[in-house]
Every structure is written in structure tokens, then in C-alpha cells.
Amino acid sequence: MKLKKALVCGAGGFIGSHLVKRLKKEGYWVRGVDLKYPEYDETAADDFIIGDLRCYSVCQRSIDQAFDEVYQLAADMGGAGFVFTGENDADIMHNSGLINMNILDVAWKRKSRKVFYSSSACMYPEHNQMEPDNPMTAEDSAYPANPDSEYGWEKLFSERLYLAYQRNKGMNIRIARFHNIFGPLGTWDGGKEKAPAAFCRKVALANDGDVIEMWGDGKQTRSFLYIDECLEGIRRLMMQDDFIGPVNIGSEEMVSINELARMAMEIAGKKLSIHHIPGPLGVRGRNSDNRLIKEKLNWEPNYPLHKGMEFTYRWIEEQVKHM
Question: 72, 107, 112, 121: which could form a disulfide with 179 (CB 3.0–4.6 Å)?
């Protein structure tokens, strides 16, 4: 039986490094490519190219053969402090757009036809996410388009780019819209971390009775998906014969940011106060709508947020000890 070969772009990042491990467990030969190796763990890839995918020649070196599957997760991204300040818009749009155009063009020329693209829930219209208790993120609600950030606009453009390559050039595309993926081995400091990691860090560093800061009133809502469930969704989508997507890969367990912070405190066994301060927030409410994934993949994520937060907190607690 021929050994399947996969390429993971963005293999030095959080989701990409976990995906490499998953593919290795399934028996794939895996090449990773990224600007850097994974930050907190050794890569499990058989081959790893350090290179900038904005450079066309790096894409040519990475896709030097017909891979059975290409996973495109490389992007310039981060949490609210990176995406919503407006200071990084040009880099986000230029860098991620260029990577996607390069990868698609080279994959097509090298006959690596099956490509997964990781989009984001940030591409959904802002006007459908103004109510924290009743956001709309059904896949068909994407248009008329009105994302709340340039990051979301770039994701929307890239989705259309991938679908155009499917229509015009015979590519076999799969697209998922991720909803706040978190877990161990993810960025937890430095400004690009997302809310679960940020609160785990703040709580781990605090002593009983301390005050931690939070942007906004904390009543904005989100759902957060544990990394293992994300990987399961990716693999199930790639194994589908006739469903392209885009499809949400996220949890329907919606919580307020205040509740998320209190969950981290409860796991740590600490009594802390929250000081609400101005800061970048994004939309008021966002939650995954899982009707389509249930229909098409006969599956949906159901891993409890509290359980994922426990694993994440314990890992970040260890990192904090070694700062």
C-alpha cells in the first residue's frame, strides 16, 4: 500500500503542529513548512522546511511533488489585541493573501490537487453578531458580506480564491471556518494569544485576592473549541467525497468572557477580581452554528469547554513557572 504524503503549511503554529502529529498517527509521511519550528514542542514532521511562504520559490521548494493532501493553515493572525487594533491590517491582508495565492498556484502546477484551507468565523457579517445572546453564524449568512475586521475580509477573499481554483482549474478544495481554537502548546503571551490562554496566564500569575484586567464589560460572548475536536473536524471534512464547505468547525457551548475568566479562576482555585478596561473587542456575540456539519459529516464537536480549559490551564501554569 502506497504511503500517503501530506504537506502542512503553518506547521510551526499551534493548530499546524498538532495536525502534523495527528497525520503521523494515521500513517502519513508529513512535510511541514513555516517561518519557525513549533515553539513549545519538537515537530513530528518527517521533513520540515524553514521558509517564508510569501516567497514563491519557498512554495515551489515546499510543494516539489504531487502531495496527496495539502493543509494550508499559514497566516498572519492572533487574538483581539492583534486583529482588532487596526495597526496590523496591511500586514494581515498582504501576508495572508500572498501566501494563499502562492500556495494555490504552485499546488495546481505540481498536481497537488486536494487542498484544505483554514478560514475563520471572523468572516461573518458584523451586523449578525451584535446581540451577545443571539449571534447568527450559519454558513449561508456570510453574504451580504460585512466582516468586523480586515482579517475577516482577507479570509473571505481567500475562500473565494480557493473556490475559484476548484471551479476553473479542477482543484479538490475543502474549506472550514474555525471558531476560536485553543489548547496546550498554543501562544499564551506576547500579544497574539487568544482569550482562553490570556486568562489562564493572568490567573496563573495572580495570587488570591489580586485583580486581573479584562477588555470591555466581559458580557461579549464566544464559543471556544478544544484542539482535538478541531483536528477531528478537519480530518472528517478531508475524507468527504462530495462536500467542499465552507463549514463551521466550532463549539455551540457559548459563554461570556466573564464566565470564561471565572472558569479559569475556579480551575486554579483562586478568588480574584476583574477590572474592566477599554480595549479591542470584536463583535458582541459569536457562536458556532453546527447544523451544516451535523448534516454533512454526521458529527459535531461536543468536548466540554471546562475540560479543555483544565488541560490548557495546567499546561500554561507550568510555562509560567519557568518564565
Answer: 121
